[in-house]
Amino acid sequence: PTEPPSEYQGLVKHTGGCHCGAVRFEVWASADLHIFDCNCSICKKKQNRHFIVPASRFKLLKGAESITTYTFNTHKAQHTFCKRCGVQSFYTPRSNPGGFGIAPHCLDEGTVRSVVIEEFNGTDWEKAMKEHKTIKNMSKE
Question: Which residues form a coiled coil (predicted)?
């Protein structure tokens, strides 16, 4: 196999997608995932657990035409999902509009070593963002 680009040193290439296969992506991230479990109104209803990566580490391999987007409130978060099967395999989080929130349960098997889940109090979003030490920088290189 070819060596990953130097900026991806220590990261692994995960692949994944929606249920029907119309949407496929690859993402460079740690094999040890830090997952956010948010309790805001939409994340709670769709069980949106996710890890955050910079946009430069995410690549949509296929399915741009199969994706539709839902927004509400501030319209900063872009809740993208497959038009055919309804699965949200990734989205653009309000906390990190320069990155992507990736659904770990939509990754193909074999590249995740461990998972840590952190609860995020999205019902009090502004306060939670102000108090959180690292979330704002997760989409930075």
Answer: none
